Amino acid sequence: MILIFWQYFIREFEISISQVTDIFSQIGFFILIMILFPLTLGPDPNKLSEFGIALIWIAAFVSIVPAYDRLFSDDYAQGFIEKAAHNAQPLGCYAAAKCLCFFLVTTLPLLSILPLICVMIGIRLSIFFELSISLLLGMFGMTLLGGIASGLVLGARRAAILAAVLILPLSLPILIFGCMTGLALIENITTKPYIYIMIAMDLSLIVLAIPAMQLGLKNAIEHS
Predict the structure, then answer these.
(1) Is residue 10 part of a domain?
(2) Reported pTM
(3) What radius of gyration do the chain's Cα atoms show?
(4) Distance CA 80, CA 9 (A)
(5) Domain enclosing residue 194, as ranges
(6) Considering its fold, how many domains does the chain have in total?
(7) What is the DSSP-derived secondary structure letter of residue 127?
(8) CA 151 to CA 209: how far, in whole Å?
């Protein structure tokens, strides 16, 4: 099982590297949002630092959500998922490897430019590590939600809209506790309760996501 998972992961990583322009597009969209929002708030550094954490989370979320629609759609259109199912390969391993690779290639580049964003909006760099941990936990949870939504709407008409409708309300707890973690860091309050809650949400999503994605993929194959 681990070997199959690793083979899927290597395949997805190679595909992601060949489509590096998509990653740069997401980073560019993230930076664009972070530039435009401060322009609407004005140059007041206190106001920028006050709303900065929420802006980072919203920009990260908005820049990633459009990509969830393509999570499984290319492999579905090319017949790879159907071929894997007919070869009796576990679709759960495929879905888990797909989500893990997607999480790494989309989240790590965002974290690499986060120090620049923090300086730009007046957030002190001393909280960068804790802020990165909360973003990693939050983006991992949102990736699992994106995988569930993408799997369930795979093959449907207007799948992108349906996936967004599913993801937006379900991601609110992650956004809320992510913002609360950042605000606690700014106010020098302990972040452990919020971090533990986000870890618990991620663990719960891992248990739910793999069976849900596998069910969605099988359903798409049966109705194709």
Answers:
(1) no
(2) 0.89
(3) 18
(4) 14
(5) 16-222
(6) 1
(7) G
(8) 10
